[in-house]
Amino acid sequence: MVRISVIMPVYNCEKYLEKSLDSLVNQSFGDIEIICVNDGSTDGTSDILNEYQKRDSRIRIINQQNKGAGASRNIGLSEATGECIYFMDSDDYLDFDAFEKLIGFIDDNEFDFIIFKISNFLDETGKLIDDDYYNMPYLKSRVGLDSFNYNNVKDFALELCVCPPGNLFRREFISDVRFPEGLLFEDNVFFTHALFKAEKIYFYDEFLYNRRKHTDSTTTPLTVKSLDIIDIASLLLDLCDEYHHENHKEELYYRIFHNIYRLFKRADESQKELFFERIRQDYLKNKEKWENDNYFKKELKPRYRHIFECAIKSRNADEFESCVDSYSAESRFKRLRKKLL
């Protein structure tokens, strides 16, 4: 059994793949296997993978039709044999001594997983980007050098960095944790499940991973797939029920209703009908589950309930928008009237 299994989904990344693989095969800690899941690449990615495999027997290649990052990581998990699991993205790179530093902490302290800092840089210039989401100074100030678990960070648990390459997991610990497949933002569910489940986590206060930001990725394009937030938040609600963490439901319903309606309003006019249909379908799909949830029944904000009901009963995007906005106008009128009185 190897000590660390590296799982790397790979899709059309010929421009950056060699640097990414070099950062793995040249690690100062060498007891690793590198599982590359070639997710239906159509560029020169396959040739690069095959060439590296010839030079390094630790590399394994799994070829599949395009299924997305979540499915690729799950397949890698099913094939991994290492004591620990590390997820790598194929256009980024890891510091050469990262595994050597991390494996010692896992061995000496029996942590379920380790969180560490991620350095972001612009692909075109190499300029570093200071980003508290990936630096996590608030986590450092809370836990310091001590191990921690969910109970120590529950007030900001859903604000922690969920990026998979920022963690090293014990494989046994995540044996029942998987990524949702076919959805964007799938890492939110995996990380939150691990956080809720863990008894002992450690924050390693160093930058060990280098995340590439492209000019065309600084602004996420608004598409119907952005509405995967609904399914992701609903899966997080399920985890809250499973682990009895009801305190996060206000935030999750905020995402499902407030944030989703903001996305709908921002959508181009040519997209709005598609957005509406997807919202309506997802709300109908989850209707019974949400209506049986005590928070939804007793504490859900009236505006969120109104958005939900407008989506269910409206026949098209215009009707949906008019229905929701009429509530906002009425609320403003009531507030104004109250001030005048």
Can you walk me through this structure?
The protein contains 14 helices and nine strands. With 341 residues, it is α/β, with parallel strands linked by helices. It folds into two domains: 4-217, Alpha-Beta Complex (Spore Coat Polysaccharide Biosynthesis Protein SpsA, Chain A); 224-340, no CATH class. Strands 1, 2, 3, 4, 5, 6, 7, 8 and 9 form a nine-stranded mixed beta sheet that branches. The longest helix is centred in the last third of the chain and has 24 residues, at 317-340.
Described by the principal axes of the CA atoms, the overall outline is: globular
- Under CATH, the topology of the largest domain is which? Spore Coat Polysaccharide Biosynthesis Protein SpsA, Chain A
Largest sheet: 9 strands, mixed
Q: Can you give the helix content as a percent range?
A: 40-55%
Mean pLDDT: 94
Q: Write the CATH homologous superfamily of the largest domain.
A: Spore Coat Polysaccharide Biosynthesis Protein SpsA, Chain A
**How much of the sequence is in beta strands?**
15-25%
User: H/E order of the elements?
Assistant: EHEHEHEEHEEHHHEHEHHHHHH
Please tell me the total number of domains. 2
End-to-end distance? 75 Å
What's the number of helices? 14
Category by helix and strand content: alpha/beta
Number of strands: 9
Can you tell me the CATH architecture of the largest domain? Alpha-Beta Complex
Topology:
Elements lengths: L3 E7 L6 H9 L6 E8 L5 H11 L3 E6 L4 H11 L4 E4 L5 E2 L3 H12 L3 E10 L5 E2 L2 H4 L1 H7 L6 H4 L13 E4 L15 H12 L3 E13 L14 H16 L5 H18 L5 H20 L2 H5 L3 H12 L3 H24 L1
Parallel strand pairs: 1-2, 1-4, 2-3, 6-9
Antiparallel strand pairs: 4-8, 5-9, 6-7, 6-8
Helix pairs in contact: 8-9, 9-10, 10-13, 13-14
